[in-house]
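Module 6 notes. Inverse folding takes a fixed backbone as the condition and produces residue identities as the prediction. Think of it as a translation problem where the source language is geometry and the target language is the twenty amino acids. Below is one complete input and output pair. Work through it position by position during the lab.
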C-alpha cells in the first residue's frame, strides 16, 4: 500500500519483525550482566524505528539479536514469522565505525555482498554504479577506503549494506562521528533511500532529534537492564516538508524532543 508520500513502501498490517519477551544476559556468576529484559516489540514492513536510551542500556545488544549475531537468553526474535537464528542477506548492517575492507577499492567494497552471493558481473556492475552515484561516491570508485573522509567512509558502509537490497537496514549510531553539517546531509540521504525503497529501518542513535526527525516510531529504552519505557509514533518522517531546520523547530517537534529527553533523564536518575 503506498503511503501518504506516494512511495511504494512494503507496508502491511502484519507484524514484520517481532521481539517476543526477549532477554539477554552476558556472562555468569559475578560477571553476570543482565543487558535486556522483557523486550516485546513489533513493527511492520516499511517502518523506520529509531531507538534511543542511555549508554549501556542494551541498544547494540538488541540490534545484534535481530542481526542474528547474538542469540537471546530468553524469548525470540522473528522476521516474517520465522525465528532469527543467524545473520542473513535480508538484513544489511551498518556499524558505528565503518567496517570497510581496506584492501578493496570503493567499487570493490560496494560490490562485495553481490559478489559473495554469486551475482553475475553485469548485475554487480549495475548495482555498484547505481549505489555509488546515489551516495556521491562514483568519482571515487577506484580509490581505497583510507583515501576517503570519515563521512565518505560511512556513506560507503551504507552503500555496501544496501547492495544486497536488504529488507531491513540495521544501523548502530551510524552518524555519531560526523560533523553537524555532514550528519544532517546523511540524515537526508538515509531518509531519501527509505522513502524510495520502502525498506524497514532500525536506527540506533544518541541524538533524540535525529530519532524523531527520521523515525516513524521512536522507542525509548531504560537504564540497564534495558526495557522499553515508551514507544512513540512520530509524524515527521512521512511529511513532505523536508526543510530540516524548519521541521526541527516546529513546536510539536520540540515538545516531543523534550518529552523523550525527560524520559531518558528520569531513567538515568531513578
Ligand atoms: N560481549 C559482551 N560481554 C559482556 N557484556 C557485554 C557484552 N556486550 C555488551 N555487554 C554489556 O551489556 C550492556 C549493554 O551493552 P550495549 O552495548 O548493548 O549497550 P548500548 O545501549 O549499545 O550502549 P552505548 O549507547 O554506549 O553504545 C552493557 O552493560 C555492556 O557492558
Ligand atoms: Mg551501542
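Target side of the pair, the amino acids:
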Amino acid at each position: 500500500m503506498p503511503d501518504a508520500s506516494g512511495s511504494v513502501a512494503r507496508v502491511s498490517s502484519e507484524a514484520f519483525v517481532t521481539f517476543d519477551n526477549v532477554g539477554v544476559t552476558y556472562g555468569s556468576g559475578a560477571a553476570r550482566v543482565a543487558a535486556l529484559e522483557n523486550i516485546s516489540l513489533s513493527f511492520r514492513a516499511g517502518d523506520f524505528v529509531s531507538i534511543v536510551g542511555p549508554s549501556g542500556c542494551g541498544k547494540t545488544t538488541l540490534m545484534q539479536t535481530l542481526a542474528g549475531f547474538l542469540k537471546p537468553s530468553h524469548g525470540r526474535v522473528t522476521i516474517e514469522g520465522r525465528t532469527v537464528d543467524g545473520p542473513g542477506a535480508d538484513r544489511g548492517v551498518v556499524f558505528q565505525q565503518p567496517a570497510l575492507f581496506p584492501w578493496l577499492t570503493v567499487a570493490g567494497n560496494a560490490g562485495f555482498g553481490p559478489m559473495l552471493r554469486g551475482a553475475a558481473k553485469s548485475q554487480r556492475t549495475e548495482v555498484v554504479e547505481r549505489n555509488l552515484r546515489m551516495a556521491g561516491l562514483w568519482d571515487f570508485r577506484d580509490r581505497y577506503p583510507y583515501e576517503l573522509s570519515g563521512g565518505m567512509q560511512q556513506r560507503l558502509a551504507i552503500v555496501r549494506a544496501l547492495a544486497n537490497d536488504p529488507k531491513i537496514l540495521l544501523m548502530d549510531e551510524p552518524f555519531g562521528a560526523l560533523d553537524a553539517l555532514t550528519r544532517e546531509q546523511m540524515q537526508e540521504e538515509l531518509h531519501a533511500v527509505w522513502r524510495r525503497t520502502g525498506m524497514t529501518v532500525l536506527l540506533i542513535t544518541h541524538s533524540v532529534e535525529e530519532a524523531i526527525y527520521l523515525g516513524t516510531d521512536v522507542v525509548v529504552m531504560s537504564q540497564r537492564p534495558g526495557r522499553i519505557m515508551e514507544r512513540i509514533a512520530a509524524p515527521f518522517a512521512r511529511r513532505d516538508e523536508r526543510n530540516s531546520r524548519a521541521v526541527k523547530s516546529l513546536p510539536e517537534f520540540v515538545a516531543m524532543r523534550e518529552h523523550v529527553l525527560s524520559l531518558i533523564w528520569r531513567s538515568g536518575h531513578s
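Reference fact for the lab report: The radius of gyration is 19 Å.
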